[in-house]
User: Which sequence fits this backbone?
């Protein structure tokens, strides 16, 4: 073939083409493609459609004996045939999202060193201090738009998993592509390995990370500062998502960087956005306004405080003073109710410390405050006991019960308990999926307050508008967008979030709202397109096979 200025001559052929996951189509290569691209004899004679391949993949997934084996099979597919992986995931998202992300990704992270097969993303350690930018330049794709980064200290509700936590950025970015159409080449997972406090990993000969004490203090901050600066300079239009950092770092890193870089913390802001969306949807069932609610949170870490802060902003936007809004949000931490008389409160909790008698346990706090909603973000399985669920049902016709801790094993209560002990009156959502529940002859389909409803759409809007910042206002807008997409059929099933089968529609709706905010707030140097929805939609990756351009060229 002659040389072409398009660079087509640089694309692989033959066996190299089959080993390139971005270009490989497997048995879907046509007869003309096989002949032109030196593939004849390298594939079985069957020529499949992509849809036939999707069905073949799903048949294999369903034959696997457990979820971890399903996860490994799908990751193997991603390594072989990227377009087929995403096509399958998009078409079967409700079935497969619990496999590629929560709850199965938690088990995958626990086993990450043992099942590690092919490196994905960038691993940065303290030994790279001073030349992180050169490490990032090793990444083969130069127009990175989304980075998800973790230091592995607080993986879901499982604690410190060190470098095994790399499964989280990999999984999150998979969802960016499947749920919002962010092209895979624009996504970069990063692990900042600063050691681990999980000493059991130190003696594990298979552990892939640094088997040493976790770095803290000035050295840690210097490494993170260098990474943030290097990433933003290496990839000028990148949005950086912090994921699963420990409580001691997450809140302060967000405050340290939010006004200097295009970044956010998903555990704080993404969780807040999806929880606020759930509250808006729940009000369609319970009646009333967000400003009428009394919210009691179990947990006062990054997730719970993030939700509380966004709820306060929403209440203020709808007419309450800040003090009035704060007075409607209550927190119970590991030592009891957060009140003004306590002298042991960290600074970030004091904003929600009310002048109120102290209560040591959740049950007594519930009875004293009589909340309209209880929201769990504690990682304490079973903390919403039958007595607590029965109590909130006494003074609420439809008590709002959000058990948000992940994975399923850490949930504050099961869907079965939430519906059973409230006589089927609860408006329930959880962080990880639960199967349908039948109470008094009625079937409920529990809603999953999954951040996937929010962060992919926000990322798409930021990417499309080339925003220089990510703001809390964007997550408030995203919450409204998600609630807007809940239809009557969802609510009749007891589900307060849209079906995941409609997630790309939801993400596009969010992206348009976010981009409009970006242009309105002048957070970009880009000129607003005349058809903003059409422009954003045109940026969404679609994993549908196209005829190889070299075949068309040679035919000419």
Assistant:
């Amino acid at each position: 073939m002659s040389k072409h200025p398009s660079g087509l001559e640089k694309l692989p052929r033959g066996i190299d083409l089959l080993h390139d996951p971005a270009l490989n189509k497997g048995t879907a290569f046509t007869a003309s493609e096989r002949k032109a691209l030196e593939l004849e004899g390298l594939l079985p004679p069957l020529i499949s459609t992509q849809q036939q391949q999707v069905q073949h993949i799903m048949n294999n997934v369903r034959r696997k004996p457990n979820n971890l084996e399903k996860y490994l099979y799908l990751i193997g597919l991603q390594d072989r045939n990227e377009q087929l992986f995403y096509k399958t995931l998009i078409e079967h998202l409700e079935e497969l999202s619990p496999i590629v992300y929560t709850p199965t990704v938690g088990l995958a992270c626990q086993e990450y060193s043992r099942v590690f097969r092919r490196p994905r993303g960038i691993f940065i350690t303290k030994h790279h201090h001073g030349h992180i930018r050169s490490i990032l330049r090793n990444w083969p794709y130069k127009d990175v738009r989304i980075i998800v980064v973790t230091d592995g200290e607080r993986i879901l509700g499982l604690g410190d998993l060190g470098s095994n936590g790399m499964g989280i950025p990999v999984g999150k970015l998979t969802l960016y592509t499947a749920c919002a159409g962010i092209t895979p080449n624009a996504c970069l997972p990063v692990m900042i390995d600063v050691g681990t406090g999980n000493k059991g990993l130190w003696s594990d000969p298979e552990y892939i990370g640094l088997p040493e004490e976790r770095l803290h203090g000035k050295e840690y901050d210097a490494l993170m500062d260098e990474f943030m600066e290097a990433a933003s300079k290496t990839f000028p239009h990148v949005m950086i998502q912090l994921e699963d950092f420990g409580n001691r770092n997450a809140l302060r890193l967000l405050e340290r960087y939010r006004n200097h870089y295009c970044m956010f913390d998903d555990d704080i802001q993404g969780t807040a956005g999806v929880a606020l969306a759930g509250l808006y949807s729940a009000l369609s069932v319970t009646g009333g306004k967000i400003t009428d609610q009394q919210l009691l949170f179990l947990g006062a870490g990054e997730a719970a405080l993030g939700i509380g802060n966004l709820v306060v902003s929403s209440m203020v936007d709808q007419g309450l003073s800040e003090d009035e809004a704060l007075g409607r949000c209550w927190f119970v931490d590991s030592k009891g109710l957060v009140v003004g008389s306590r002298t042991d409160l960290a600074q970030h909790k004091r904003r929600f410390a009310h002048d109120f008698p102290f209560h040591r346990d959740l049950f007594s706090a519930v009875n004293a405050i009589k909340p309209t909603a209880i929201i769990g973000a504690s990682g304490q399985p079973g903390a919403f006991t039958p007595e607590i669920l029965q109590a909130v049902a006494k003074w609420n016709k439809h008590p709002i019960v959000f058990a948000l801790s992940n994975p399923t094993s850490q949930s504050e209560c099961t869907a079965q308990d939430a519906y059973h002990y409230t006589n089927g009156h609860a408006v329930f959502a959880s962080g990880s999926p639960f199967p349908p529940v039948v109470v008094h002859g009625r079937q409920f389909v529990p809603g999953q307050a999954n951040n996937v409803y929010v962060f992919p759409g926000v990322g798409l809007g930021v990417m499309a508008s080339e925003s220089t910042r990510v703001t809390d206002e964007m997550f408030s807008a995203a919450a409204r967008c998600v609630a807007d997409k809940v239809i009557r059929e969802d609510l009749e099933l007891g589900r307060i979030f849209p079906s995941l089968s409609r997630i790309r529609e939801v993400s596009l709706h969010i992206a348009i709202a976010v981009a409009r905010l970006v242009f309105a707030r002048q957070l970009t140097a880009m000129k607003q397109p005349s058809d903003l929805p059409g422009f954003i939609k045109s940026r969404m990756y679609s994993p549908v096979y196209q005829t190889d351009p070299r075949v068309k060229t040679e035919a000419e």
Notes: The longest helix spans residues 266-286. The chain has three domains: 8-99+545-555, 118-261, 269-452. Residues 1-6 have pLDDT under 50 and may be disordered. Residues 128 and 135 are 8 Å apart (CA to CA).
